[in-house]
Please model this.
Amino acid sequence: MAQRYHVFSLPPELLETLIPRNLISQPPPPEVSTLIHTAPLVSDNARACNICLGATFADVTEQRSHFRSDWHRYNVKIRLRGGSPVTELAFAQLVDGLEDSLSGSASSDESSDDSDAVKVLVNKIKRTSRSPSLSEERQTPLTALTWFHSPPSTQIGVYRMLFPIDTPAPSYLAELKSIQERVEGGRKWAMFMVAGGHFAGAIVEVSRPAEDQDSTFSAKTKKKPPKPKPETSILKHKTFHRYTTRRKQGGSQSVNDNSKGAAISAGAMLRRYGEQALRDDIRNLLLDWADDIQDCERIWLRASVSNRRIFLDYENCVINKGDDRLRTFPFPTRRPTQSELVRCLLELTQVKTSHLTEEALRAQDEAFLASLPKPKATPSVVPAAVPEKAKPQRLTKEEEAYREKWSRLLEMISKGRSEPLKSFWEREGASLGGIDALIPEWIGDRHASLLQVAVQSGQEDVTRWLLYELHADPTILVPSSGVYQEAANESDISNAPPLQGTGSRRTAYDLARARAIRDIFRQCAGDHPDWWDWFGAAHVPSTFNKEREEARDEKKKQRKKGLKEKMREREARERERESKQSDIDDEQVEAKSEPRSQDPTAPRKLGGSSGAVDGVVGLTAELRAKVERERRARAAEARLKMLTGA
Model:
């Protein structure tokens, strides 16, 4: 049976031999610095190598032979990679550690390439000396357990959550040794679980106090020594349950209300009450255990995001939200019960043990590394140059006032405010460039003149005022897709010529959707034909003649009146035709419904004669129903006569 160790009372002989477990269990090879020896002093007249330590030569031939040796090439490679060179003795020790022998000698000059031994040694030093890259560290998963190795074949695992949060991995062994010391009052933990309306909490002692030592008994005492007290013991515990979750549904009622809206049912009300009662019970329990919780070294909490607010997010809470003692269970847990708390306590305090040899650990680590995904090479993509957005030009006070005038003018025209418009134009018309000034491009309007804006808005009074009193130009073309001439800007808007040859070849008259607006153009063309090219550039079809318009209106009225009379005559003929058809149908029904003389001695067929069926062939559904009612009435009268005669 495997021996079990308590994390707070490990054997001293085991602690002395523990070393942190690396990813590769093989102990790291001695660094290059340990193989470096101090080079002997060289006289000024002797020849020496500036890279290799302690290498002196009697003549040039010996120096050249050294430059072709594997030792010198190895030192050059290491020096280029940022390492330190080694002595000839250290290099010989490195070569002896390789399985393959040297492929060349120091005096061979047949090839200038590095030998296999130099390549293997350089690659080996590169692997052992380089630190893991960020991509590899990111891909290596961080397990819940940290392992320690005790030669030759013992490994123990301890949960990382037992150590302080800010403890680096190399300091885990020192922390493990420090928690073996007993403290006054012992080490206490607080453990809480809540899920599905179930709650379980406990205050446990995980290490006996320093003053609680087993008394020693002399050999003369006949009494048996008492059994040692267990390291872990439960000081306080409490469990209760409230109805907060629908059976086989999952999720609390509050979460369901937040996602789908408040449900209106008796069960939902009971679950809401259960949640409130559970929250009050837990907080009251925390208040009762406040002194014990303050003395605890760790606080273990298993709760969902919504249930964590029961313990942390409320006024005068016992456990602060940023408490360094807070931990979550680093393994799956079951329903919150007292037995589950005991199981979790044993899982946290009992050390995991294994007995694997160095070869088995190495094979295990290599298989683990092989299973990890290889880091993807991040392509060095040069980000495309993003064009800088043009900063909006700040306007002067004069420009802001100028834009405000244009905005007010267009608003009054589009809304038909004639009186304010006339007074505003008398005051500001000249500064805006006159009646035929092109609308500035920064406004974003699809019209080129004030007359086009008034016509498009359907304002009759404004259109008449612009044509008759201000002599607005009706020949200005409507721009297409915001096409403006370069002269249509704020700096020289008064000298802008009318748009010619651009746009969709439409004028203000073409924008008029109402007949009254078009008649204003025709009236002005008839009253003042010499003002503009009304029938050409302005697209006005003809002048307005009142008598001719009245005659045309009268003709339309007469035509409508004739159409109405024709419709009335047609409806009268339809009603007369329908009445005649109904009279004919009634006569046919009466003729077919007269009783036929039958021979009383003639045999009668069961179900009646077929004459009744033949009589309704070709009739409509209403007529057939009427015939059927008459036939049944006569049959009833015949039965009554037979009864009275009898």
Remarks:
- The mean pLDDT is 77.
